[in-house]
Design brief:
The chain has 547 residues and is α/β, with parallel strands linked by helices. The protein is built from 17 helices and 17 strands. The protein folds into three domains: 3-109 and 255-377, HUPs (Rossmann fold, 3-Layer(aba) Sandwich), CATH 3.40.50.620; 117-250, Beta Complex (Methionyl-trna Synthetase, domain 2); 388-525, Orthogonal Bundle (Isoleucyl-tRNA Synthetase, Domain 1). The protein is elongated, with a radius of gyration of 27 Å. The chain starts with a strand and ends in a 34-residue tail after the last helix. The structure holds zinc ion.
């Protein structure tokens, strides 16, 4: 495999990023992208902000500005947060760009031409004060099934779907006004026509995470219904049918235009590198290029069903190779119950707040340790601190630091010679096999197990150091002591190279401390010894304790 297309779900440009977003989607995607680059694969790592949708519109209304300015502000903040965490996309676009409007309009027209879009009249609730049709999520009232309080098209109490027109004593959640019933026309996506094709495709996928596949198959068995893909809103991609009076004032629904953003940004990325935009087909329509979508639980149904349905309906694209979905990360504060991370409940931990005080790698480390790969995970700040102190400072940092300190103190800052025949064969074997074993874990998206392999090697390094007792060897047999330290430096190199996808900032520091040139940082050279006599700079600690 020489090429791969990697995407991470587009975050809404209407808020800051929190721990849940990062752990559920962007961090695993970045680890995988870094790993692929380290293996010499050509990748396109694509992301951008999802600029459309009602929330940005409402924020703008509240603050008396425009959706475009709200979106611009959050887009910039997202770029800062990602870069502070070392999450390095090849491009970070935004769906409010003119390029994206034309790419998604073209897509819409092709789906229409292929017979998968159908125009239909329906009755909807209209807010006379806000002067807009009410999106489903903005209708509050009493559930017609259970009598509970409800918001939107699915009751939170009984979980049943409800027709918004049947909600009792409905009110607009935006203005509180009593909505009027008005007729409007929309285009419906006939995903139901693709039900069988989707089932055949999905049921034969291999290597997918079980919860993702089972959830999507379950939804499919319930049957897909035609779904409206246009909205009456002043913010979004205009429906590209200038000669149809029904299209006036209508935009594409966000869930239709957002994933097409991956395609737009791929084209923009090619253009930014001085290539032809139309070469996007080499990535999106080439059966030899795998396509991996990374995302959180809330996006699984979309990427595993509706997006593939859209691609099938358009007709010229490859379907995703894997949809790498994670569960949610809950949060627990000391002495409190576990809860969902949520902006409205004030239970989110923001990336900007974290980065203002702490280094990025401990967070990357912790979020990978608790990665919700198979089930929901719990984020605890005190646990993050403890794991930083015990494992990053106490194990990994300690091993590298004590080895380098020996070089400085007793070998004049130069790499001591190895002692062939004296090297620990078992340790050397597991060191030699580590790149392959780690590669297998990462290629099957088992990031947690991958990190565990790296940390196990750090622990083995410490055990070897303790067992050899170089502080005693140096008095009895300096040559043997040098051999021990030589082995330790070799392990440190391997930890830096193989740990880089997880802890990029730490690996950079370690590369400098080991005076490794760029070509010596290659994955294939991870287990090779350092040449004897090389001068190393004075050591400094890799991690700091957090109290
Ligand atoms: Zn109900």
């Amino acid at each position: 495999m020489h090429r791969a297309l990697i995407t991470a779900a587009l975050p809404y440009a209407n808020g800051n990023l929190h721990m849940g977003h990062i752990g559920g989607s962007y961090l695993p995607a970045d680890i995988y992208a870094r790993y692929c680059r380290a293996r010499g694969r050509e990748i396109a790592f694509i992301c951008g902000s999802d600029d459309h949708g009602v929330p940005a519109l409402l924020s703008a209304r509240e603050e008396g500005s425009t959706p475009a300015s709200v979106v611009h502000r959050y887009h910039e903040r997202q770029i800062e947060d990602f870069s502070g965490l070392g999450i390095e996309f090849d491009i970070y676009g935004g769906t409010s760009s003119p390029n994206h409007a034309s790419v998604s309009q073209e897509f819409f027209l092709k789906v229409l031409e292929n017979g998968f879009l159908e125009k239909k009249k329906s009755k909807q609730l209209y807010d006379p004060e806000a002067k807009m049709f009410l999106p489903d999520r903005y209708i509050q009232g009493t559930c017609p099934h259970c009598g509970g309080k409800t918001l939107g098209d699915q009751c939170e109490d009984c979980g049943k779907d409800q027709d918004p027109l049947e909600i009792i004593a409905a009110r607009s959640a935006i203005t509180g006004a009593v909505p009027e019933i008005r007729e409007t026309t929309h285009w419906y996506f006939r995903q139901d026509l693709l039900q069988e094709k989707l089932f055949d495709w999905l049921s034969t996928r291999e290597g997918w995470r079980t919860p993702v596949k089972n959830f999507a198959l379950g939804m499919l068995r319930q049957g897909l219904k035609p779904r409206a893909v246009t909205r009456d809103l002043p913010w979004g991609v205009p429906v590209p049918l200038p000669n149809d009076p029904d299209a006036a004032g209508k935009v594409l629904y966000v869930w239709f235009d957002a994933p097409i953003g991956y395609v737009t940004f791929t084209k923009d990325w090619l253009e930014a590198r001085g290539r032809d935009r139309e070469r996007y087909a080499d990535w999106w329509k080439n059966p030899d290029v795998p396509i991996y979508h990374f995302l959180g639980e809330d996006n699984v149904v979309f990427h595993a069903l509706m997006w593939p349905a859209m691609l099938l309906a358009e007709g010229t694209y490859q379907l995703p190779t894997n949809v790498v979905g994670n569960s949610f990360i809950n949060i627990q504060f000391p002495g409190k119950d576990e809860t969902k991370m949520s902006k409205s409940r004030g239970t989110a931990v923001w990336i900007r707040d974290y980065l203002a005080r702490y280094d990025p790698d401990p967070l990357r480390y912790y979020l990978t340790l608790i990665a919700p790969e198979a089930q929901r995970a719990t984020f605890r700040m005190d646990d993050l601190f403890r794991r930083n102190n015990d494992e990053l400072v106490g194990t990994l940092g300690n091993f590298v630091h004590r080895s380098l300190t020996f070089v400085q103190k007793y070998f004049d800052g130069k790499v001591p010679p190895s002692t062939p025949g004296d090297e620990p064969s078992e340790l050397m074997t597991s060191l030699a096999h580590l790149p392959q074993r780690l590669g297998e874990a990462l290629d099957s998206f088992r990031f947690k197990s991958g990190l565990a392999l790296v940390m196990r090697m750090a622990r083995e390094g410490n055990r070897y150091f303790d067992h050899q007792a170089p502080w005693r060897q140096r008095k009895e047999n300096l040559r043997q002591c040098g051999g021990t330290i030589n082995v330790c430096l070799r392990i440190a190199r391997s930890l830096a190279v193989l740990g880089a996808p997880f802890l990029p900032f730490t690996s950079e520091k370690t590369f400098d401390l080991l005076a490794l040139k760029t070509e010596e940082r290659a994955w294939e050279k991870a287990s090779e010894p350092l040449e004897q006599g090389r001068s190393l700079p004075p050591p400094r600690p890799l991690f700091a304790k957090i109290e």
